[in-house]
Design goal:
mainly alpha, 2 helices, binds zinc ion
Amino acid sequence: MTQVHQSQIKWCGLCRHLSGEFATAARLYSEAVALLAAIAPNRPPQEYNRLRHAAEEAKRRSELAGLAFEQHLESHHRTAAIAAAATA
Ligand SMILES: [Zn+2]
């Protein structure tokens, strides 16, 4: 089994871009949920539904951004493992 050390993995420009996108998407999701949770009980159901859909959409975007970041990090791990195997 090939050991992949953290020192072999460097953050590239895409890492920083994707982590920033993920952080932003997660923050927008959090804000959308905060808006939904703070809705006054006397508001019409249409308004609640609109906010709920916005929160659902923000959640989906956050999940996709997290997945893209995760998959990119995995590609670094694979590349590092291949490089480690080649020099072993
Ligand atoms: Zn990267």
